[in-house]
Specification:
Strand content: under 5%
Radius of gyration: 20 Å
Number of strands: 0
Oligomer: single chain
Number of helices: 15
Largest sheet: none
Shape: globular
Helix content: over 70%
């Protein structure tokens, strides 16, 4: 049948959905993880101010999205609303990312980051829930894993390499080079979002009553919350997800700012994160294939164990540098540990996120997928608030930096 997926092949709808990971992953790499955090920290000065405010900014943005997620999810389940809300957040995020290239004051840079991150996170909420519309239950692990893999191939690696080339050519500390990388991020994100905006449709929905859309949405939130609480499988998974995804997101958001406070080489950190993207491509696909044999939950648990080891290694890295007074030898050893951590993160980062998304997608009713993913997102976002906020608060209180609290 036309449009139906053959074994081993993707439909046009599945390809378009997967391509949005290719589109938005450049934001996750250039703005959230690698280039922009280092630049922001340097603009704030050589003390821990940049790390503190980067953590606060990330927590504020994720808190806003977390508080809005249930309502946005309920509204998105109505006929025709999911695509409209998705489009709004994509345009909102792309615009404020572009505006970040205009500012030089750290307060305005932080404001632009917070607003652009709200756009990014909001679009991801609806993107994730579209998984139930674009494929079947039996193909969710595969499609979700390939989404992350393609994100690492294109959205992360290709524009990341271009960005590194720009920085090396113009100077790692050159503000104009960073601004050009920010513009590249915005343009890449916007252009490669077009297939998703054009080809993906909302297949499952609830008919809306125009006069009572908002009030019905609030009633649906209460009904869905009760259903989640009654469904032991969904409820326990969401509780577990809240705790383990905190460590995952904290490592993503805070690793380079953390390394910057330890005076690690900027070029080395960025290249190490490139290794993360490259390693994550085959490993994300491998996780999807292994889930067919062992199941998604055992694969998620194995990734959690490795993430715990990564966080302990990160704590040791910071402790060894600070205990040695920031000696050249300790910094050199820490740089090696950062590369090892980057490789280890690459083996599990895409897999744990992809399988968490697809496993949850298989648990929820398709017609209310957006509302369920709204609660899924609020658990993930509140977890993201917790990790960076803890690091910022403890750094401010002690004057010492540590990534171990995410463990």
């Amino acid at each position: 049948m036309k449009g139906q997926a053959r074994e081993g092949r993707f439909t046009r709808t599945e390809k378009s959905w997967i391509l949005y990971d290719w589109a938005n992953s450049v934001y996750a790499t250039n703005i959230m993880a690698a280039i922009f955090p280092i630049y922001f920290t340097s603009v704030c000065g050589q003390d821990t101010t940049g790390l503190q405010w980067w953590g606060y900014g990330t927590s504020i943005a994720t808190l806003v999205v977390a508080l809005l997620a249930p309502l946005l999810g309920a509204l998105g389940d109505y006929k025709g609303m999911k695509k409209k809300l998705f489009s709004f957040f994509v345009l909102f995020g792309v615009l404020f990312t572009l505006l970040m290239a205009v500012f030089d004051i750290w307060q305005l840079l932080l404001t632009g980051y917070i607003l652009s991150y709200i756009g990014f996170a909001g679009s991801c909420l609806f993107y994730d829930s579209f998984l139930t519309d674009v494929t079947t239950r039996g193909r969710m692990d595969k499609v979700s894993s390939w989404g992350y893999a393609m994100g690492y191939i294109g959205g992360s690696t290709i524009p990341f390499l271009i960005s590194i080339g720009i920085l090396l050519a113009m100077g790692m500390s050159n503000p104009a080079a960073v601004k050009l990388c920010v513009v590249l991020t915005s343009v890449w994100w916007g252009i490669f979002s077009i297939p998703m905006l054009k080809n993906v449709k909302q297949k499952y929905y609830i008919e809306k009553k125009k006069a009572h859309v908002v009030s019905d949405a609030f009633r649906n939130i209460g009904s869905t919350f009760r259903d989640i609480f009654k469904n032991k499988g969904i409820f326990l998974f969401m509780i577990a997800y809240f705790f383990y995804i905190d460590g995952v997101n904290t490592v993503i958001h805070m690793s380079t700012s953390y390394g910057e406070t330890l005076n690690l080489d900027q070029t080395g950190m960025i290249l190490a994160l490139l290794v993360t993207q490259v390693v994550a491509v085959p490993c994300s696909i491998l996780f999807g294939r292994l889930s067919k044999r062992f199941g998604s939950l055992p694969m998620i648990l194995s990734a959690i164990v490795l993430y715990f080891c990564i966080c302990v290694l990160g704590f040791y890295m910071g402790f060894s540098v600070e205990n040695a007074g920031g000696s050249a030898e300790s910094i050199a050893n820490a740089q090696i540990l950062f590369w090892i951590m980057a490789f280890l993160v690459g083996t599990v980062q895409g897999g744990i996120q992809a399988l968490s998304r697809s496993h949850f997608g298989k648990l929820v009713p398709p017609a209310k997928s957006n509302e369920y993913f709204g609660f899924f997102d609020i658990f993930g976002k509140f977890a993201t608030v917790m990790g960076p906020l803890l690091i910022s608060v403890i750094t401010a209180a002690t004057g010492r930096s540590s990534l171990a609290f995410s463990a």
